[in-house]
Amino acid sequence: MRQMLRTLQIAFTYIGTIVGAGFATGQEILQFFTQYGRWATLTIVFATGVFIWLGTKMMILAQRIGAESYEDFNRHLFGKNVGGIISLFTLVILIGVNSIMLAGAGAIFEEHLGLHYQTGLILTVIGSYLLLKRGISGILQMNSIVVPLMLTLSLIIIFNTLDHPGSHHFLQLGTERSAFAAGLSPFLYTAFNLGMSQAVLVPMARHTQNERPLVYGGILGGLGIGFMLMAAHFAMSAHMPGILKFEIPMGSIAFRLGALVQLVYLVLIFLEIFSTFVADIYGVTLQLAQRLSISSAFIKPAVMLTCYVFSQFGFSSLLALFYPMFGALSLVWAVKLILAPMVPPGKSGAPPKSELLPASKPVPRSTRR
Question: 292: burial class by Cβ within 10 Å (0-12, 13-18, 19+)?
Answer without folding.
Answer: exposed
